Amino acid sequence: MDFSWSDEQLAYRQAVVEFAQKELNSRLIERDHDSEFSREAWQKCADFGLLGLPFDVELGGQGADYLTTMLAMEALGYGCRDNGLIFSLGAHLWSGATPIARFGTPEQKDRYLRGMIDGSLIAVQGMTEPGSGSDAYSLATTATEDGDGWVLNGSKTFITNAPVADVFVVFVSVDRSKGWLGLTAFIVDRDTPGLTVGKPFHKMGIRTSPMSELIFEDCRLPAESMLAKRGSGMMVFNHSIEHERGAILAHTVGTMERQLEEAVAYARQRKQFGQTIGKFQAVSHRLVDMKVRLESARLLMYRLGWEWDRGGGKAIDASMVKLVLSESWVQSSLDAMAVHGAYGYMSESQIEREVRDALASRIYSGTSDIQKNIIASQMKL
Ligand SMILES: Cc1cc2nc3c(=O)[nH]c(=O)nc-3n(C[C@H](O)[C@H](O)[C@H](O)COP(=O)(O)OP(=O)(O)OC[C@H]3O[C@@H](n4cnc5c(N)ncnc54)[C@H](O)[C@@H]3O)c2cc1C
């Protein structure tokens, strides 16, 4: 495996860092407090090309390989402190656009993907329901065939981007007696009669990423709204969730690098008991743990990108990346806060927010427990 970057890739990484530092961090403490999503920042990311990274050039995308996409996301995490924006963007890319890019008809790609890449359409996936979270395939929302279309009834909850999204990739059952063989994906426009988007939820972290419920009451869809074939919902979901698990936390490698640099700089200048705190072994070892955690997580993620680019990469690899990146990010954020003492607990430091933001990553895209279950089952346990 070769993870050496070309001059072009390194220049792009640097350009993303500079773009993010300059354009994406304004009024963040205030926006976090007010749970305010920035459509302006979203559009800037689209204009910079970030929303089209892994997608076809013919549709307006960048045609980048997975490793380059991960590198760009890593750079975004280094330069941008708005983890809510990055999470919204990741949900859009991996759960909204990816299934359409992989399974959409030419008409569906033309109608939706172009807008998802140029920033005019915000998308996300609707899988979770009040009664089905980790056990996602036990969902209860149904689609009933009606003439030349389908009628959806049920609800989805904890849906990222929903308050601002234009398009939803929704998983429902067309025949509950068939279990997962009845699962089917549909593309639903926000303004479809019978679809109600709930009020935004107030969350602990990633507050600049809005979230709400979706309620379907006799929501009628034309036949061409179906994504892939009837009964192929599990295949569609597995494809996108694996990409989500492997890539949605790519930015945390950059975030952890920034956290480490700032914590080291602080430990070199903050003095207690007549010496800089970095001279205390308890502090220096904490910083070493941050460093080793960062470098291990980075390599695990790059390995998956390298394998994806060669048509490989299995569910176990994506789950390991998700598990390691989320748990590493939580611990790195806690360590950064510990090094900064009381200052790290203050909103002004922007460190406490990253603790709150990081904790969400243990839950979305499947909890850490579920990632361990997947890894264990692949180990034939
Ligand atoms: C910030 C955020 C964004 C999200 N965005 C979306 C979105 O855009 N679209 C969407 O569809 N969903 C989204 N979700 C929902 C997310 O996918 C679910 O919350 C997640 O899958 C867990 O489901 P649950 O919350 O119902 O917890 P539950 O499944 O009820 O789990 C509760 C606890 O039990 C544990 N548990 C459950 N089953 C097992 C098991 N078999 N073995 C061991 N432990 C188990 C879990 O690990 C957890 O600790 C989001 C969630 C969050 C927090």
Quickly give the structural class. Answer: alpha+beta
DSSP strand content:
5-15%
Q: Which molecules are bound besides the chains?
A: flavin-adenine dinucleotide
What's the total number of strands?
10
CATH class of the largest domain: Mainly Alpha
The CATH homologous superfamily name of the largest domain equals: Butyryl-CoA Dehydrogenase, subunit A, domain 3
Distance between the termini: 29 Å
Output the helix-strand order. Answer: HHHHHHEEEEEEEEHHEEHHHHH
State the strand order across the main sheet. Answer: 1-4-5-8
Nearest-angstrom radius of gyration?
21 Å
The count of helical stretches stands at 13
Largest β-sheet summary: 4 strands, mixed
Estimate nothing, just give the exact number of structural domains. Answer: 3
Shape: globular
What's the architecture of the largest domain in CATH terms? Up-down Bundle
Mean pLDDT: 97
Parts with pLDDT < 50 across at least 5 consecutive residues? none
Give me the CATH fold name of the largest domain: Butyryl-CoA Dehydrogenase, subunit A, domain 3
DSSP helix fraction: 40-55%
Structure description:
With 381 residues, the chain is α+β, with helices and mostly antiparallel strands. It has 3 domains: 7-122, Acyl-CoA dehydrogenase/oxidase, N-terminal domain (Butyryl-Coa Dehydrogenase, subunit A, domain 1); 124-232, Butyryl-CoA Dehydrogenase, subunit A, domain 2; 249-378, Butyryl-CoA Dehydrogenase, subunit A, domain 3, CATH 1.20.140. The protein contains 13 helices and 10 strands. It has helices spanning 7-23, 28-33, 39-48, 66-79, 83-103, 106-118, 233-247, 251-269, 281-308, 315-339, 341-345, 352-360, 368-378; strands at residues 123-126, 142-146, 149-160, 167-173, 183-189, 195-197, 211-222, 226-227, 271-272, 275-276. The strands form 3 sheets. Strands 1-4-5-8 form a 4-stranded mixed sheet. α4 runs parallel beside α8 and α5 runs antiparallel to α7 (233-247). The longest helix has 28 residues, at 281-308. The radius of gyration is 21 Å and the shape is globular. The protein binds flavin-adenine dinucleotide. Flavin-adenine dinucleotide is lined by residues 91, 124-128, 133-134, 158-160, 206, 360, 363-364, 366-367, 369-370, 373.
